[in-house]
TrEMBL record:
Transmembrane domains' residue ranges: 46-70, 76-96, 155-179, 191-209, 229-249, 270-292, 312-334, 354-371, 391-411, 432-453, 459-478
Compartment(s): Membrane
InterPro entries per the UniProt record, alphabetical: Pur-cyt_permease, Uracil/uridine/allantoin_perm
Coarse class of the protein's main subcellular location: membrane
Protein name: NCS1 family nucleobase:cation symporter-1
Source organism per UniProt: Marinomonas maritima
The keyword Electron transport belongs to this UniProt entry's keyword annotation: no
Tagged with keyword Transmembrane: yes
Record's bilayer topology term: Multi-pass membrane protein
Key words, A-Z: Membrane, Transmembrane, Transmembrane helix
Record-stated family: Belongs to the purine-cytosine permease (2.A.39) family.
Pfam families, per the entry: Transp_cyt_pur
Length: 492
């Protein structure tokens, strides 16, 4: 029997034979999701976004925009809302093939970058996720440390050592959740989403008695009076789009479990923009209230809550922060690199090994911060400074990939993929797709030039947008001349 894809309603399902199972590009974890396993409805997907959006980094975004992008509080919140509405475009478009064919992000990339070439964007996306995984694990470890400190004075005396132990405890919890598979993540997100929303609303209500919302919203912009708003706005907008530019690529890792295209679209519209806006606004309000609460301005909610003189409420708050951080980190920052690393060598790296490899890389990337916690080195780099540079830097790399993926699927392949060929070497899809690789390299080279030529610096400052449009345009020109006619692509 020969492997083939069979259409069932709006989905395609792969029938696997022995030859395909032996292919070096195939393993059971990267294989298309079976129709019977596509159980995520719009509320599950909305819960996924609520669970991912309510996290410490989202809380700090308002501070990033006001401190480092010269925006007022009102302008910052407006920018966050607009950025997440814009993000719905690449998110829903790149989710389409995941839902239709049940394939994860790395397999979809084989169409535009080639069977082997797909590893280049995969590893870029994967290492960015590992970086975020490490950052979020630091926050989760700090929450565990403060929880244990609230109930044990002996633990509190450990100081930085306790934070490092908390880091590894939190690391282990996340590994267990993701190794258990997609249903475990679905259950976690669905359970945590309403709880986190209730907590957020409660915190906003509590803060309303500590600070005047009118005064907070009236805080002026931190930029020269004669400076144009638009330059600062687009710089901040790029950084905010960069925040979820990661998921705009690997959203097929989740949409492959959706019941329908309607579910993935509506779920994302419900779950993303409003949640990001609300929790970023909460961060702005609580940061403003921190002065009256603890006598100093603190933009990190974990540190702020840790200074409250009530062990009971600190312990409760830290449990909730641990839940929030796990729900974000497992979905946003472990699933993608797990699949990305498998794509390198599907026969050697399965789901469990991919999860553990992600965890190890995350520890390595956070090695410097762990040494700081142990007081072996010192650094005064602020959270906001780190995010502003981090967001702009990686969005310049991820933007071109998003543009190439969308053009390839909708304009070049016209929503037709040979599902069997995506899992077989020496088939329809080449080892390296020169069109994808050149279209990606072009914006990257221009970004490097922009970093060294001040007159061209705008290309980097607006990196996600300039990269996405440049990559999409180059790919269309290059791929159009070499495209296989749609009539020759077998989808059923």
């Amino acid at each position: 029997m020969t492997s083939k894809s069979v259409k069932q309603d709006e989905f395609y399902e792969l029938e696997v034979d022995t030859d395909l199972q032996q292919s070096s590009a195939y393993n059971d974890d990267l294989a298309p999701t079976k129709v019977k396993d596509r159980t995520w409805n719009k509320w599950n997907i909305a819960a996924l976004w609520v669970g991912m959006s309510i996290c410490v980094p989202t809380y700090t975004l308002g501070g990033v925009l006001t401190a480092y992008f010269g925006l007022s509080v009102m302008e910052a919140l407006f920018t966050i809302l607009i950025a997440n509405v814009i993000l719905l475009v690449p998110l829903t478009l790149n989710a389409y093939p995941g839902t239709k064919f049940g394939i994860p992000f790395p397999v979809l990339l084989r169409s535009s970058f080639g069977m082997v070439g797909s590893n280049i964007p995969c590893l870029i996306r994967g290492f960015v996720a590992c970086g975020w995984f490490g950052i979020q694990t630091m926050f989760g470890g700090l929450a565990i440390h403060l929880f244990l400190s609230a109930i044990s004075s002996g633990w509190a005396s450990l100081g930085g050592v306790g934070e490092v132990i908390g880091f590894f405890l939190f690391w282990a919890i996340q590994m267990i959740v993701v190794i258990r598979g997609a249903e475990s993540i679905k259950w976690l997100e669905t359970l945590s989403a309403p709880l986190l929303l209730i907590v957020g609303i409660g915190l906003m209500y509590w803060a309303s008695g500590k600070v005047s919302f009118t005064e907070v919203l009236a805080i002026p912009a931190n930029r020269p009076e004669d400076a144009s708003f638009w330059g600062y706005f687009f710089g901040g907008l790029t950084a905010m789009v960069g925040f979820w530019a990661t998921l705009s690529l690997n959203i097929p890792d989740f949409s492959r479990y959706a019941k329908s295209q309607k579910d993935q679209i509506i779920g994302q519209i419900i779950g993303l923009p409003a949640t990001m806006f609300f929790f970023a606004a909460l961060g702005v309000v609580l940061t403003a209230a921190s002065t009256s609460l603890v006598g100093e301005t603190i933009s990190d909610p974990i540190s702020l809550i840790g200074k409250i003189d009530s062990p009971f409420w600190v312990a409760i708050a830290m449990v909730l922060i641990v839940i929030a951080t796990i729900s974000t980190n497992t979905a946003a920052n472990i699933v993608s690199p797990t699949n990305d690393f498998q794509n390198i060598a599907p026969k050697l790296i399965n789901h469990t090994r991919g999860v553990l490899l992600t965890g190890v890389v995350g520890i390595v990337l956070m090695g410097w911060e762990l040494l700081k916690k142990m007081s072996w080195i010192e650094s005064d780099v602020s959270v906001e400074s780190m995010y502003s540079n981090w967001l702009l830097g990686y969005s310049s790399l991820l933007g071109p990939i998003a543009g190439i993926m969308i053009v390839d699927y909708f304009l070049i392949k016209r929503q037709h993929l040979d599902l069997v060929a995506l899992y077989k070497e020496n088939s329809l899809y080449p080892a390296f797709n020169s069109a994808g690789l050149i279209a990606f390299a072009g914006p990257v080279v221009l970004t490097l030039i922009a970093l060294n030529v001040s007159a061209f610096s705008w290309f980097y400052s607006y990196g996600w947008f300039t990269g996405a449009f440049t990559g999409a345009f180059l790919y269309y020109l290059l791929a159009k001349s070499q495209a296989v006619p749609v009539s020759q692509i077998e989808t059923a």
